Amino acid sequence: MPCGGGRSSPVLRGARHAPLNEPAGRTIGEFELIRRFFVAPSAFRPETVLGIGDDCALLRLAPEQDLAITADTLVSGVHFFPDVDPADLGHKVLAVNLSDLAAAGATPGWVTLCLTLPQADASWLQRFHTGFFGLAGRYRVDLIGGDTTRGPLSITVQAMGCVPAGKALRRSGARPGDLIYLTGTVGSAGLGLKRLQGEFASSDSESLRRLLRPEPRVSVGLALLGLAHACIDVSDGLAADLGHVLVASGVGATIDWDLLPLSPEVRRYVAETGDWRMPLTAGDDYELCFTVPSAQQASVENLSSAWDCSCRRVGIITAGSGLTLMRAGRMEQLPLRGFDHFRTDRAHGTG
């Protein structure tokens, strides 16, 4: 079993601490903060030899396993609005890292958490704790270290998982003739952001959920081991992220607009605004985009019937380079561009 499996242990969850019932803004010291909100009573994973409480965490990995490592920083005013619910934020900072592990086909195992806080507000921390450990408990992830400091609100999570040696999914394996698949839908989180920014009126709660509480496709990534040629998670927009696969693999691709998995509300947005590019360039979907040889089409579609999300074929890998979109009977080249931290100063949700 990847990572050696988990052992029976108490679940990491907000309920293991009594409710605080403290006034908002009540601050606590650094070491009390760590003890109350981030020290787990026991580990989920047998490989966790030592977690929080020493200068270094210690892991003892199973033989024939590669360690997959990723990290993301989320900054207030760039990746999330300052008034975001801390429970949503706690969920999301972990989810975006688990999504990266999913794209590698890795089993999540451990995370470190670095918190920079304007103040140690106990009620804020309790909400953050609930969101973070609620997701960590679902995937049996151990928090094994990190740091806390004072300053403008930003959060960095490093996530680690394991994958059978030499089997990890990469961006560089796509081949001409491969079929391109997408899980879930694209554009929904982008629509949620437009709602929060007042750019589009909608009562669709799903778009806000997709923005604030993305669901990492961990089980899909595991199912794709030995099947997919290449895989990436869609965090900065489909055009940009598929573009990374194309560049790494030295290939091109054609996407069919009519095959894109869009929610009814995203379709309404496109119809009313004419902004058909939004589902291709908006970030924060955290779906998996992967390629498989055409001979495996039936296998993918049979497997996907048991997944907890939809999966749709949207295009094909071609020889050459670049991304072509087939739309309204015409072919046009798409720039391989999505969100870029150094090309925009708009606050948004992309991780």
Task: Give keywords.
single chain, 351 residues, alpha+beta, 60s Ribosomal Protein L30, Chain: A, Phosphoribosyl-aminoimidazole Synthetase, Chain A, domain 2, 2 domains, 10 helices, disordered C terminus
Radius of gyration, in Å, reads 21 Å
Strand residue percentage: 15-25%
What's the domain count? 2
Given the helix and strand composition, which structural class is it?
alpha+beta
Alpha-carbon distance between the two ends: 30 Å
Poorly predicted ranges: 4-22, 344-351
* The CATH class of the largest domain: Alpha Beta
CATH homolog superfamily of the largest domain: PurM-like C-terminal domain
CATH topology of the largest domain: Phosphoribosyl-aminoimidazole Synthetase, Chain A, domain 2
Strands of the widest sheet, in order across it, are 8-10-7-11-9-12-13
Outline the biggest β-sheet.
7 strands, mixed
Portion of residues within helices = 25-40%
Rounded average pLDDT: 86
Classify the oligomer.
Answer: single chain
Concise synopsis of the structure shown:
The protein has 351 residues and is of the alpha+beta class. The chain has helices at 30-37, 86-104, 122-138, 188-196, 205-212, 218-223, 238-249, 264-273, 278-281, 297-304, and strands at 48-50, 58-59, 65-75, 107-117, 142-150, 154-164, 179-183, 230-234, 252-256, 287-292, 311-318, 322-327, 330-334. Helix content is 29%, strand content 25%.
How would you describe what is shown here?
There is one protein chain. This protein is α+β, with helices and mostly antiparallel strands and 351 residues long. The protein is built from ten helices and 13 strands. It has helices at residues 30-37, 86-104, 122-138, 188-196, 205-212, 218-223, 238-249, 264-273, 278-281, 297-304; strands spanning 48-50, 58-59, 65-75, 107-117, 142-150, 154-164, 179-183, 230-234, 252-256, 287-292, 311-318, 322-327, 330-334. The strands form three sheets. Strands 8-10-7-11-9-12-13 form a seven-stranded mixed sheet, with helices on both faces. A hairpin with a 2-residue loop joins strand 12 (322-327) and strand 13 (330-334). Helix 2 packs parallel to helix 3 (122-138) and helix 4 crosses helix 5. The radius of gyration is 21 Å and the shape is globular. Residues 4-22 and 344-351 have low confidence and may be disordered.
